């Protein structure tokens, strides 16, 4: 498979409040190359610069220095029209996106993005129906006011609003914050389904190693405004000690297996999902029989 | 762009100006305003300027901030200057073009008015630079407390002011967030006709209203949970008390006021 770069940054740096006493470098010299079709998990402790980094990808923040390429085109702030077009390529779902809902009906709210893109009504209708299905919203909900819905439903409407723009890259900033475990699994499942169906790039910012481990094909770790690493989950979770040193953890299964390995059992360090753990334990038990 | 709005522009510090009783600072600001309006000539105004600069130096507020406070009123300053320049026709004629006449009196008055407005803004902004909004509303409550006798709800008003001030930065932050979110959905707020731009505000204002109401409800609930029931019988964490330095400041300000009156006499 040929790998096509979708997001590329070169020495991206962003400084908050430049030339004031509150100056603070939020993103420090980050160079990264993300291929099309990946499911990227973005992790890092609070204030590590991950939210700031992703806001650069659709031109909401202007880099203090460095360059950004989206789909092999440089993102330039000077050309506002072009910038807006670039924004349609990279869809960004913010934290607590339900607070951005404003229309009278769910249908109208989801159509806000596609309408801004200048699509015709039939296409908008098709996209709304499709994304509503993807995020598991019933058609009867489409005519309701978004303010009558439950928290989880609102969140899914907001995510659908960005998905309907069919961006080449969908970035979600902690889409599961503040939801119960069931709602969390549901949204993550739908995001995964979207990724598999559309084959688009997805970036998921999360605190939960389990969520990231389960879905991601690549993991991006930010630490103290710097890029710590960008690699496959196996290679990232191999560095368990370093991750723990920066206040992050590895998935619980990985921790269990690392301990088992330390106790002398013959495991590799590539266990990071429960399913895989089950498989290799079963295999081992079979062997012993 | 949205961060330039300077409300709650308190600049923390430990200078003597910061430590003055906020009630006294309000009174002193009042005297300062009277002083500026009493001044009849540019020389008298000079006394006001000296007072203002002196106060700024003592308060250790950076000059950058002092100039920043004038920025929003530049249009008013220009408007005043132009109005005085063109509509005062007494005095020696300096320049004439079509119906526009510029005279020495016009120039003098417009310079005088502009200096006065600048002094007014910079001087009064010193009050908000050196006093935290909370201290300020507290002081206003105390100054207005005699009005309680005629059933003016002074405490409630000042509580509302305190809350309003407290939530300005929060709402600004919230607006920023909502704006980013809608921009990410392709909202276009920078181009188009005036009507189009006004319409583009709807996706920002509605979520903002909704969240403001939500916050208000949550705050009311939290206050009630902590047994807030209005001003009656309420004691304070920070008692306001006057110190000798307050009266010293009053004395100095009064001297400047007298100075202005004397200069007015001399030059009239």
Structure report:
The complex is a heterodimer of chains A (289) and B (268). By secondary structure, chain A is α/β, with parallel strands linked by helices. In chain A, 41% of the residues lie in helices and 22% in strands. Chain A contains 11 helices and 10 strands. In chain A, the strands form 2 sheets. In chain A, strands 6-7-8-3-9-10 form a 6-stranded mixed beta sheet, sandwiched between helices. In chain A, strand 7, helix 6 and strand 8 form a beta-alpha-beta unit. Chain A is globular and about 65 Å long. The mean pLDDT of chain A is 87. Chain B is mostly helical and 268 residues long. Chain B has one domain. The radius of gyration of chain B is 24 Å and the shape is flat. The two termini of chain B are 47 Å apart. At the A-B interface, helix 2, strand 6 and helix 3 of A face helix 8 and helix 10 of B.
